[in-house]
Amino acid sequence: MIHEVDEALRTLLAGSGLEASGVEIVLDAPTRDWAARRNAPTVCVFLYDIREDATRRGAGAGEVYDADGYVVARRTPPRWFELTYLVTAWASRPQDEHRLLSQVLATLVAVDALPQHLLTGSLAELGLTVALDTAGAEPDGPSASDVWSALGGELKASLGVRVRAPLAGTSSAAAPPVTEGLVVRATDHSQAADHGQDGDHGQDGDPVPGRRLRYEGVSDPGPDGFAAPRERRPAPARRRRGGRRP
Predict the structure, then answer these.
(1) This protein's superkingdom (predicted)?
(2) Does residue 156 lie within any of the structural domains?
(3) Which has the closest alpha carbon to 130: 117, 110, 113, 116?
(4) Do 105 and 164 sit in the same domain of this protein?
(5) 45 phi and psi angles, rounded to 5 deg
(6) Would residue 246 count as lying in a domain?
(7) Contact 130, 161 (CB under 8 A)
(8) Where in the sequence is the domain holding 120, given as residue range(s)?
(9) CA 144, 149, 150, 156 torsion-angle sign
(10) Which of 123, 157, 173 is the last residue of a domain?
(11) Same-domain check for residues 159 and 196
């Protein structure tokens, strides 16, 4: 999930015209040594904090359907995480850095969620809204000054970007459908005991044939008249994609 958010953010910024103007978009840590090696205008999107949003943790399990509407697996609900990025611009002059940072800010504040067409992998499969908060209130994690201190660099202008993304739950295959009826055998246990036999053999020692119970109300039984048709359950309505987060 994390790499999918990385790629969506990078693609979103690249589509704003930054790459077309020769600006690199990287996910590196902006350390002092890294900054010394920069020789081209760069926008750095550095992930520095990951925290679970425990208030959105669900319970139970949902059902996964195949193309025909049959239950094929059960999946635990997704867990939501806040990914916090430090976004900075690097150029030869402060004026150029501020121009780049302004372009990044305009691109990010124009949306309150990552566009659905930019989501890949598990994020695209879940179809849930991945919220985006740019330059909002200071998160509960490390502050920007703490991050710069840990990186060994000097404090500079930056944007704090938080993404709330779901991590897909685990799936377990559903049990196969019932295809045969219950087999019932009736045996005279007293006579079987006198002949030293167990309860599912007759007096002659041969197995007692069983009787397979019919399913009531089966409109399309199997070839032996006893198999139950596979139950089909309607798939739940999908959540509308691209909705705004309440």
Answers:
(1) Bacteria
(2) yes
(3) 113
(4) yes
(5) -115, 95
(6) no
(7) no
(8) 2-173
(9) positive
(10) 173
(11) no
State residue 105's pLDDT score.
96
Report how far residue 88's alpha carbon sits from residue 51's, in angstroms, rounded to the nearest whole number. Answer: 22
Q: 230 to each of 34, 74, 94, 171, how far by Cα in Å?
A: 61, 17, 68, 21
By the 8 A CB rule, do 84 and 159 touch?
no
- Regarding whether 123 and 33 lie in a shared domain, the answer is yes
**One-letter amino acid of 127:** G
Q: If you write DSSP's letter for every residue of 9-36 in order, what string do you get?
A: HHHHHIIIIIGGGT-EEE-----HHHHH
Strand pairing report for 42-52 and 24-26: parallel
Residues, the chain: 246
Alpha-carbon Rg for the chain in angstroms: 31
Domain boundary among 173, 195, 226: 173
pLDDT in tens, the chain (246 residues): 999 999 999 999 999 989 888 999 999 999 999 999 998 999 999 999 999 998 888 776 777 777 777 777 777 889 999 999 999 999 999 999 999 999 999 999 999 999 999 999 999 999 999 999 998 876 677 888 889 889 988 889 999 999 999 998 877 777 766 666 677 766 665 555 555 555 555 555 565 565 555 555 544 545 444 444 445 555 555 555 554 554
